[in-house]
Amino acid sequence: MKIAVAQTRPIKGNISANIDTHKKLINLAVSHKADTIFFPELSITSYEPELAKELATHQDDKKFDDFQEISDKNKITIGLGMPTKTNSGIKISMLIFQPGTPRQAYSKQQLHANEFPYFVNGRKQIILTVENKKIAPAICYESLQATHSENAVELGAQIYVASVANSQNGINNAMTHYPAIASKFSMPVLMSNCVGFCGNFECVGHSSVWTKQGNLAGQLNGEEEGVLIFDTETEEIIIRTN
């Protein structure tokens, strides 16, 4: 299976422009026959907690129908970041599009303390099956908590994908934590980060892939948009900037 993570430079609150960027990067992944592509945390709006209530929508919003069509046509699974409205409040979610499958939303289960004024926790881990491989999505802060990956593995995860919006400090922690998860559970770990200012901090990119041995297979830089495409069988990687 070929699994891709994207690195974007989101425009604050500009859903239309950010959707266009997502489509370009998905097309880039499709051109290399990727089976999946995952985007950073809240990639459609940028990570902007103070705007989340204004920008949030329902997971079945028709503005995302194009992604389902792209998924169906190209047989690709797509995971993108969006704040969603639910009965319990606004959640930090990943909208998931799979070929011929109803749209799903995975919502961040473990929030950072700074997020509590704006968001509520998700309640359930989703495990995606693509090409007979089980993929566990994780969203930023929770992916750096040991309990999250442990639970994912108990549910059968074979690949772990972290969608983040990380500053340099977060990336420093990631570069230690994610390879340790990979080697501990013998599973590839992929991280999708963005670049540019998000909220009140700067995201520094360096989206990365670690093999099941915990070795760094590939990494994007800290400035450019692009995709990393990882072949889970050969452990070969393709790096493309947009």
- Estimate the helix proportion, in percent: 10-25%
Q: Give the CATH superfamily.
A: Carbon-nitrogen hydrolase
User: Uncertain runs with pLDDT below 50, 5 residues or more?
Assistant: none
Average predicted confidence as pLDDT: 97
CATH architecture: 4-Layer Sandwich
The biggest sheet amounts to: 7 strands, mixed
**What overall geometry do the principal axes of the alpha carbons give?**
globular
Strand order of the largest sheet: 5-4-3-2-1-14-15
Task: Please write the CATH class name.
Answer: Alpha Beta
- End-to-end span in angstroms? 22 Å
**Radius of gyration in whole Å, from Cα?**
16 Å
- Write the element-wise H/E pattern from the N-terminal end onward: EHEHHEEEEEHEHEEEEEEE
Q: So how many helices?
A: 5
Number-wise, the strands total 15
The percentage of residues in β strands lies in 25-35%
State the CATH topology: Nitrilase/N-carbamoyl-D-aminoacid amidohydrolase
Secondary structural class:
alpha/beta
- The domain count comes to 1
